[in-house]
Amino acid sequence: MSMDFGAPADDPKVFRNICRDRILKDLLKPDKDKETKSSWKVLIMDKFTVKIMGYACKMSEITDAGISLVEDLFKRREPMPSMDAIYFLQPLKENVIMLLSDMSGRCPLYRKAYIFFSSPIPKELVTYIKNDSSVIPRIGALREMNLEFFTIDMQGFVTDHDTALVDLYGPSDNSKVFNDTITTMATRIATTFASLKEFPSVRYRAPKGDASTTTKFDMVPKWLATAVWDIVSKYKSTIPEFPQKETCELLIVDRPIDQIAPVIHEWTYDAMCHDLLEMDGTKYIYEVSKAGSDPEQKEAVLEDHDPLWLELRHAHIADASERLYEKMNTFVSKNKAAQLSRDGGEVSTRDLQKIVQALPQYSDQVEKLTLHIEIAGKINRFIREYGLRDIGQLEQDLVFGDAGAKEVISILRSKQDMSPENKLRLLIIYAIVYPEKFEGDKGDKLMQLAKLSHDDMDVIKCLRYLEGSDLKKSSRTGTFSLKFDAQKKKNAARTEKQDGEETWALSRFFPLIEELIEKLSKGELPLKEYPSMGEPSSAPQGTTQTASTAGPAQNPAPMSMRSRRTPTWAKSKNSGDSQSSDSSVLRHSSGDFKRLGNRIFVFMIGGATRSELRTVHKLTMKMKREIVLGSSSIDDPPQFISKMKSIGSANNK
Questions:
Q1: How do beta strands 113-117 and 84-89 pair?
Q2: Closest by alpha carbon to 221, among 141, 175, 305, 164?
Q3: Coil, strand or helix: which one is 296?
Q4: What's the distance, CA 85 to chain centroid?
Q5: Rounded to whole angstroms, how far apart are CA atoms 357 and 193?
Q6: I want to staple 250 with a disulfide (CB 3.0 to 4.6 A). Which of 2, 86, 119, 200 is the partner?
Q7: Its domain of life (predicted)?
Q8: Count of other CB atoms within 10 angstroms of residue 445
Q9: Please, which residues bridge with residue 153 across strands?
């Protein structure tokens, strides 16, 4: 009796799969091996393209495509004159120099070179290659892949600009860094559309002031949108079969539109893993105890290749915990050998180890389940130890205008053991919802009550930098004022949704991009606030869908009713069951979203959050349109706060 963990989405038309297939079919099998005499090839990459490859493909897929050896361009390599080589490189002069060094002269390292550049190659580098007459006959292909982004998710990518928030919104006057960041970011965004052969209509968050008062920070979305538009417009004449009319939508926004999402506690399994556990990217290190030997340290990768992770990642942590135990209990109840391996009562970690020994044929499944049970258990323990239930409740109440100064002061006084980071995150939300409470010396008094450092206070001040304010000027006056654009009848950063969805407690919050995407899909996003680049040839299919035509997806069958294992605080405020995880919305929906409405791309400058990544999956199911989130990086709360401290530190110099 095996355990049903589901299966990763394998629709070839899903964003990430298109990128993977381009690598496996177009790059790793040049000319379908017509020009090669050997079926095995060497793959040579630079540090950047190694990352692209690592995010898009598994090593087994690369090997299956006929690659016998993967090499670093800048490391010493053994000559293999009987084998062909595939070069996947950025079009940089230093890379071209190394390539020519490999393939020129009487004794080239490889028989033939198939060269693929990640983005358009400058004419001067093409000339540089042509000038080496000994290399030309040895080149089997020279192509531009237009693949210069990292597919971090089935519906997400980053451009590898981890410092974009500091480089674009910090106080530095280094115009070269600023301009280079905009240029490279635009190039990498554009390659996503070149890869998919999609021509986007481009919209962006408009500057808030007029030309005379607008800061350069406020112009970032417009400048990036202009650069992307210029590049993709040229594709119409440079890329064969590239669309001549708009086929999808791209909305470019930046971190200032939503400063709460990066710091509020997100209660899904994915977000909690990255927020509370010491993870290295997607890697989780844990120990496995074996009888008669020392604990063994193992490494697990939490990503789409793990079907159990795929199912649970967007589920509320309480829901995820419940499902994990249900899966194990179901497995045990239907397997006699597993029942004999138990000590009685509920399934324990010791029971799981015995089950693995008794049922070796299921060892991989049981070990995977054991891993996730351990992770969920550790997260739930941290929730209790850190008092996150009360903190999370106050965060939600602040956002929706149901709490204020009294509650903030009360929790700061009563929870003396609250970590400095959690205090800071709470005060950031408080400052955004109640900016008037931080005017003059009020903010300093709050920080003293919270026993936070001057560096932490600088983070609160730097929120204004995300609004494009002149922090240096206000610092010289000796006072501090937060002025945000919120026009509210009461102090609230969000309005409760009235869409009938049932939610878990502590998960009312939704990122602002959720509203923007819904309005964009319905054709209701104001052009004045989000202008369009150029004049669209025609409205892309699906842009004017209304709620009646694109209605929400049917609610999936509930997993189970709450059991005694589910904490009371986690139960839905509404009746019935939970808002279920998407598992993989593309697995439960029609494979070809192109028939139902063209793709929507949203690009977040300055770092996106896991709640925003979850949102695009949720809305893909709800609106029946594939939505892809791009960003300069994916930031967890500690990373965002660290970047804000860097901005504050740079300002104080």
A1: parallel
A2: 164
A3: strand
A4: 33
A5: 50
A6: 200
A7: Eukaryota
A8: 12
A9: 156
